[in-house]
Write a structure and sequence with these properties.
- With 337 residues, the chain is an alpha/beta fold.
- It has a domain at 2-181 and 217-241: Rossmann fold (3-Layer(aba) Sandwich), CATH 3.40.50.
- It has 12 helices and 13 strands.
- It has helices spanning 11-23, 63-70, 85-90, 93-112, 149-168, 190-199, 219-232, 249-259, 285-291, 299-312, 314-320, 323-332, and strands at 2-6, 28-33, 53-57, 75-78, 117-123, 172-177, 180-181, 204-207, 213-215, 217-218, 238-241, 246-248, 267-270.
- Helix 1 crosses helix 7, helix 4 packs parallel to helix 5 and helix 6 (190-199) packs parallel to helix 8 (249-259).
- The chain is globular.
- Bound molecules: nicotinamide-adenine-dinucleotide (NAD) and 2'deoxy-thymidine-5'-diphospho-alpha-D-glucose.
- The site of 2'deoxy-thymidine-5'-diphospho-alpha-D-glucose has 19 residues, from helix 6 and strand 8.
Length: 337
Amino acid sequence: MRVLITGGAGFIGSNFIHYWIKKHPEDYIVNLDKLTYAGNADNLKSVENNQNYLFIKGDICDPKIVGEAMKGVDVVVNFAAESHVDRSILDPSPFITTNVLGTQVLLEAAANARVKRFHHVSTDEVFGALGLASSERFSEDTNYNPRSPYAASKAASDHLVRAYFYTYKLPITISNCSNNFGPYQFPEKLISLAITNLLEGKKIPIYGDGLYVRDWLYVEDHCEAIDLILSKGKEGETYCVGVDNDIANIDVIKKILKMLGKSEKDTERVKDRPGHDRRYAINSEKIKKELGWQSNHTFEKSLTQTVKWYQDNSNWWKALKNKEFDAYYKKQYKTLS
Ligand code: NAD
Ligand code: DAU
């Protein structure tokens, strides 16, 4: 089988490529990635000489490159996106271009090439925000209510993917998952930023009261979910992926502080994110019941492994915390004290 992975040099995409090559070594993988600030060829160093792997540097918004990459492809897994909420607040425009227009370019090429499956990797953020006091969880039946430019662009992409299923009979599936963590995550997201800041002797920036809740999913569990959706998922269907692991940011931060022998003195309150979604939580009954998916990793153990990975791979993340990153950090983080 020939699999086109877009955004394979990013966090989840590179984990997925490592996972896929191990699990399905007979398949041929084409990785199409623009290598934005978040894309990193180093994530795939160990596979770059594999004869069943081809890297194409290119933009999913470019129909010519996408058409070339799509030749002979059986299955597409679309990870390529601008993915950071805070950057979408600073400048929404690349989010609309890549996440909306880019997805449509991919869909058009996939329909022309008559691929057997187009899987779109989406997010729980399309559903909006849950209240802290409520016990509600997002499911496949939850109405869309995106509240950040990032979430709105992902919601638009999901709608386009479904439109290609109904209008052009493109065999699609969609997954909406919760916050991932693990190796190779660009050090701008809460867990990767917290660990690397502490390792650099810096503080962890906490938005607002720190009581915002996320449902943390280990990236390997997510890869296994996508694999199952590709093999057993029904065309046209959406699957929500989460682990009932809803934890307040402050509690995640306390765990990381403890693992690295630090204290709350190593945190700082910063200006809150505008329109900050209070709580995300996912009901994963459908993928569990229909496809037999389950999480194989506990939060405690996988967080410990993740902390160790960043300790052991400081060259990887230090190269990313460069001048460009410093400029972003200064713009984004305004301390309250
Ligand atoms: P990431 O930012 O780490 O990686 C994105 C990758 O896409 C990078 O390699 C980048 O170079 C590439 N890319 C960006 N624009 C491109 C373009 N125009 N053409 C080609 N490549 C382009 O993102 P991630 O965290 O790995 O997320 C992957 C996908 O999963 C995204 O679609 C995101 O919306 C979704 N998602 C992420 C999470 C999470 O917690 N990280 C949770 C739910 C859903
Ligand atoms: O829910 C899935 C989504 O998870 C994905 O679709 C996105 O691509 C991914 O970036 C992530 O979005 P979040 O905004 O939830 O993740 P982030 O790591 O940016 O923030 C997690 C929580 O931590 C959120 O409540 C904001 C807070 N936070 C974040 C950062 C970066 C802080 O308190 N301080 C910080 O410095």
